[in-house]
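Quick start: read one record
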Amino acid sequence: MIIKPMIRNNICLSSHPTGCLKAVQNQINYVTTHLAGGLSPMEAARRAPQGAPRLALVIGCSTGYGLASRIAAAFGYGAATVGISFEKAGSPTKPGTPGWYNNLAFDREAATAGLVSQSLDGDAFSSEMKDRAIAAIKEVAQKAGIPAQVDLVVYSLASPVRTDPRDGTLYRSVIKPIGAPFSGKTLDMMTGKISIATAEPATEEEIAHTVKVMGGEDWELWIDALLAAGVLAPGARTVAYTYIGPELSWPIYKNGTIGKAKEHLEKTSHVLNDRLARQVGGAAWVSVNKALVTRASAVIPIIPLYISCLFKVMKEKNLHEGCIEQLVRLYRDRLYTVEAARNASRVPVDGERRIRIDDWEMRDDVQAETKRRMEAATEENIFELADVEGYRHDFLEAHGFDVAGVDYEADVDPSGI
């Protein structure tokens, strides 16, 4: 089958197995160079700072920051990994989701490098998946010849729905403002067309549902399940990802339904930090990450225009990062410096105890220039002021398209890699 991108309303409905494989390999190569210092994973493990991960669990492992987290732990520190995601498998007649191919690629490359990994497919919110993950942790540890104790748990789920395992209630998240409608410029990155997007305010029920899906409740259930099973290592660490962004996006993001969920996530980090400190001498954080092109961000009003302008500014200032660059910096310069790896209190945080790797994005000069360009943007000058091509590339690359070195006219088997 020859697979081409099928895009509708800033949503890509197809993915390319060979492109996904190549994109995963590119991320692995970046980690090998910039985190492992050119060493093999086994050599990197021997030279890693004391306290670096040996066994990592990544909940939401298949794309974006979750995939980058898993690659960085495995190929940067030689960690064995268990990854969890909910994907649609490819068949001989239809492509699967990009995350399906990414997981296949990761497991293949990990095995080639001598790393032990296991990818689980299913509903991460369910009690069944928590039981499956605990069993997988023990299996992976046995194969790797290490204790069955996870020392890094990354929570990076991005799902629109969640079924509460305790009572079976289905919750659906929404991306809406609170209190008043929101209108703002948005961008079709395939055409460069600028339009005004409007979102109506959320109901109280929609706010509550979004917090249930995207807040910290499930993260806490995961940590409690791992503690109860005795599979968290002494000093175990856990991190979840969040975003704050500029004030111009706050009505639809920070002060909207997503923001309410992220507030809950941050509060949960403090609860978990206290619990882990008491029970295993561990710690928990949220990491505030940079705005990047994801499958979700492309449909949030104002965000595509903001990201396109931001990318142009940050590239001009030589500050731009993608997911893998962000995660290398998180691990290398925050979580696992020589001092921080040994002592969690040495991990640098802000006044709210958040790790900040959005620091370059939020620099005053970057924000001022990005805002100026957004205000000045028209369909006539958008390609001059914003990095529409870069946004489009990242969007397509996340689905295995527009990856250098891939022959997109070649016949491929969509059922696997």
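The chain has 14 helices and 13 strands.
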